[in-house]
Amino acid sequence: MGRYGKSGRLNLSARRYKKGGNLPNRKRRKEEVKPYEVEKDVPKQNEIKLEGRRIINLSHFIRSLQELDSHSAIGCCFKDMHVIKETRYGLNSSLTFKCKLCNTERSVWTCIPPASESCDTEQIHHKVNTDAVNGIVNIGCGYTNLNTFLTISDVPPISQSMYEKEHKVISEAWEKLACLEMEEAAMREKELAVECGDVDKSGIPLVTVIVDGSWAKRSYRTNYSSLSGAAAIIGARTGKLLYLGMRNKYCATCAWSVRLSIPPKQHKCFKNWSGNSTAMESDIIVEGFCQSLKMYGIKFNRVIGDGDSNVYKMILDARPYDDLLVEKIECKNHLLRNFCNKLQELARSSKHGHVGLRKRIANNVLKLRTGITKAILYRKMSKDALPLKITNLRSDILNCPFHYFGDHTRCDEYFCKTKQDNSKNEVPVMKSSGLLYKMLEIFQVLSDCAKSLLCDVSTNRVENLNSLIAKFLGGKRINYSLKDAYNTRCNISAVHFNKSLPNYTFHKSLYKYSPSSHTKKYEERRCKAREAAAKRRNHLKLKKRLFVSKISNTQDNSYGSKAEKPDLDLNQYSEKYQEFIKNLALDDNEIKNLEIETRAQRDSAV
């Protein structure tokens, strides 16, 4: 007979029961007989089930496992150990191993990088989380995108609080690095200005800059209600970013507190603007001009802009330099683009004259622009004095509509080879309809900027920066204006714009040591690819097609309203035929009225 005791042991006893024995005697005899104790099999400790994949630092993890192989002096090794616990901190995991023989417990982290004296222990443990957040921000995505990628890759996701904590770390690091890079670029601009002799009477270097702004949301030229905006000042000589400012109209923490009618918790508030979104650009650029002397010891004496805002007027009103009047140079590309847009609007408007003449204008917009471009190039290369160049270019611009519509009496010899041919002169007709005077108003606006056109400069460099900002904002399709995400992505754009190896530089700035060779090799490969593409474009001289119609006028048999349809059956065809014949039938009065209405049709201008 056997029974399990309280100690978990199986008690076996051999005895013989007699008939008529009572219960007390049985208990007494049981106590007298010494039981044979047999131990049960000790159940195995529950090993945890590790699911999915983990990110590991390969060299560190292998080295740690090798150390576990000699954890005891009694001869047990790594094969005698099993995982009893996993502690995850974001993407970094601590695996606790326990030996089955000596009960030794050791923990191994999966992603501890090589030790550095300048990095504390906590930062070392959390590096993989910081790098993951930094990587997802650098491709224009966010928290949801990161966890989507991790879960599809069968890697445990990170929490929202972990993401925000690491985002704060990289935000401060990118901001610091962006300031250092802009200061370095300003010092280089300062050196070049001194070398070229561009200094004022006090010896302060004078720098020409390119300015422009952007918003966090696309406006489509109608809806200027973005919650955030940025503006940049770029040195014309180096093409590097010198100043970048951001304005934010919203703070999620403050807005939530207002909604709940409670005081906001302690936080870093990024709300620094309460005016219109359209005024952000001018305010930032004026601020950059006012701080240039204090920050870098230079003055911005000329500004190249696109003319889309009141930036120049605000600069003049602010008077950042007491003894210097800032000069404005308009971007040639924006002047010509606005010129062409106004001509196309004139051609589309039914209020302005004959439809045939308006079609002639629409068909000649590109020729008009080309003619003005050739005139700019010719006058720029001439050896005349600048005032005479400006006067001649203005005359060429105002003569363009006469030249392209058949009147060559005012054409200069270099501009026109058919000066005596006035056989196709449409100018009188355009004058009679008033369309020519509407055109001349547009040409007059462009001729007033003849001096800027002769400078032949553009804001392409700052447009490149704006495209980088749009890239890091996910194409401006996601609202990153709630907290510090917008400022962070703008600072990342600044470093990428000024440095050829931005992520390599960021890693050294944050961790005080170089990353692995993968980062540097990849960024060097990208630099070479960009340089090769630039050389290829310059060599081939590819021409970009201007004014390509967004709506195709050709018939598409596969898609759209002109797509092929099956033939009508006989009944439907007969009904359509009878309906068409019925609509053509007129009575005597209708025929007489139609004849009277169309008597002078031959002499009509339509």
UniProtKB/TrEMBL annotation:
Region (Disordered): 15-36
Domain Mutator-like transposase: 52-416
Record field: compositional bias (Basic residues): 15-29
Source superkingdom: Eukaryota
Protein name: Mutator-like transposase domain-containing protein
Species of origin: Araneus ventricosus
